[in-house]
Specification:
- By secondary structure, the chain is an alpha/beta fold.
- It folds into 2 domains: 46-251 and 360-381, Alpha-Beta Barrel (TIM Barrel); 254-353, no CATH class.
- The protein has 13 helices and 16 strands.
- The strands form 4 sheets. It has an 8-stranded parallel beta barrel with strand order 1-2-3-6-7-8-10-11, surrounded by 6 helices. Strands 9-13-12 form a 3-stranded antiparallel β-sheet, with no helix packed on it. A 3-stranded antiparallel β-sheet has the order 15-14-16, with no helix packed on it.
- A hairpin with a 2-residue loop joins strand 4 and strand 5.
- Helix 2 (68-76) runs parallel beside helix 3 (90-103) and helix 3 (90-103) runs parallel beside helix 4 (125-133).
- The two termini are 26 Å apart.
- The relative contact order is 0.16.
Amino acid sequence: MNGANDGGSPPSSRDVEPDEEHGDSGPEQPRRPPIYVLEGNTLHTRLTRELGVNYPFVSDGMAFVSLPPLVLAVSEAGGVGMLGVVPEPPDVLDVRIQTVQAGTQKPFGANLLIAPDGGQHRVTREHVEVCIARRVPIVSFQGDLPPAEWVSSLKRAGIRVWVQAPSVEIARQALALGADGLIAQGRQASGINHSGLPTLALVRALRAMTDTVPVLASGGIADGLSAARALFHGADGVWVSTRMVASVEAYAHPGYKQRIVDGDAGDSDFTTVFGADWPGQRMRVVRNRVVREWTGREGRVPMPTPGPTRVGTTRLFPGTPGGASVDIPRFSAFIPTPDTEGDLDEMAMPASGASMARIESIQPAGQIVVELMERARRVLADPHGLEADTDEDDRG
C-alpha cells in the first residue's frame, strides 16, 4: 500500500498565513489565522519522500483559478501547489513564478495545458524556457503529450516532469518520453477530460504497469476518505481540483465557488459545447443552463451564434500591467473569476460531481490540505472497507 504512513517527518513549515504573499495576482483579502503544520503531521508516500513535503497532496494548476495565493497556501501547508498557466503568456508566467518564489521555499510547480486553440497551442517553448530559467521544481502537462524535446530540456535542467494520463496507452507514451510522474485522470475529473475509466480503476492499471514513478489520483478526490481510498488502491498522492476551487484563495468567481458547494454528484456533465476555445475537447463542468441545453447536440450549436455574441466580460492576467478587460463570447471556455461580470449560466465552470457531493463549505486552502490529509491518515490506520470501489460514482 503506497499510502501507508512510514513515520518520520520532513522539516516543518514556517508559520505563515496562507494569503501572506499576494504578489501581483489579485486584490488583497482579509487576514486569517495561520495554518500550522506540526512535526507530527505527516503522511509519507513515495511522493513525499521524493519532494520532501509533509503530505502527498497536489493542488491542480487550474487555468484562471490557480494563481500565487493558492499555490503558496497549499505549499506552505505541506502539500504541493501548482500554478495554472493557460491562458497567460510567458512574461506573465515569469511574474507569477517570481511571486511564488518570493513567498515560499517549499516545492511548487507549473501546470501547462497542451491543447490546440484555432490550430495553435497557447503553451509554447517560451513557457518552458521560463520554467527552466526560474528553476521551477515541477512542470506538469495536461491535454496532449508534450514534445519530447521539451521534456528532455526540462529534465536536463533538473526539473521533474509529470504528465496527465487519461488512459494506460497515454501513460505508456508519457513514460517513453521520460515522464517522472503520472497523473491518473479518471472519468470523474473536472475540466478537459478524455478518460474512459473511473479514477481508482485507472490508478490500479497504471500502478500495475509501472512501479518506477509516482502515480497521482485525479478525479473525485475531495475529502479524507476519497484520498485514503486512492492511496490504498496504489496512488502515491492525490491531484485535487474541484475541492480547491471552493477555497478562499482560489481566483474563482464567488458564484462559481458557491455552485460547487451547493452541487451534488449529478450536477456535472461531459460536454464539448465550449468549443469556441477548445474545439472538440470534452470537458466535465457544472451542469448549468447552457450545458443542459446543448449537451448531446453540440453539433447543432449555431456558428456564428444568433442574438447576443457575448455573455459577459472578464479581465485577463489580473494584477499585472498587461491585464486587459475582454468580452466573453458565447460558448467560450473562459472560466469566471472575481473580475467576471455576466451570466454564469452561460459560462464554463469545470467541476467534478463526485467531488461536489463531498464539499460542504468554502475554506482556506491550507486548512483543506491539513484536514483532508490528516483524515486520510486516520482512515488508512484502520483501512477496513477501502478495498471496494464504492465511491466510484460514474455520474462524475
